[in-house]
């Protein structure tokens, strides 16, 4: 194991703070994958493990992650279903949390287990139920965001792009109810330990309509096994997807996926985004 302060992904100020917070910590494992934007380190100090997240100047998600820990994660963290906040510094883009044991659900037999999805539904309902805020402008903002994605570099065909622009401009903009959302709710952010599902990675957490947290699942796991969808909704307690709003949500998510993945060079994720666009262009489909 190597000393935490020597990791090349840390800025001088991040190293200084970590030396104050965890003076004897050593690195057990480097979990970083976020396209070089963030260092994610599993560290140990005096037999206790922690997760250190250190963002670069281009990391625009750290503020969201810290906000989630400060405002919304207590119902989970108090039961060890999410990490607990230990230290944080917003300006320095630095976060230390407790370490959660377990294995990622993604690409394991647990990804086909209805009980995992039932638990994930229960956890998500707890997150969404903490707060609700009325917002008259959310739909208009999201429409503008989708059009901005289409204004940027992408490989959506001109014909499909024209159809997308025309449809977005035709949409109504009714008031929305926003709740705390995870923003990337899917098996790659779920751990399973001793039969319990736990949650990690809150860099996309924000106030949004509840149904937006079902976008990834609908495009992936629900599409391949409707039994997982049934189990998830049993755990959640209802289905938050109003058909017209869900159609708009799916199409926005699809556009963002295809364009973002192209811009960062993730060909597989880009292909998924194009498939999501094709699927979502069937109006009102669940």
Automatic annotation (TrEMBL):
- Domain (Aminoglycoside phosphotransferase) ranges: 48-246
Fetch the InterPro entries from UniProt: Aminoglycoside_PTrfase, Kinase-like_dom_sf
Any idea what this protein is called?
Phosphotransferase
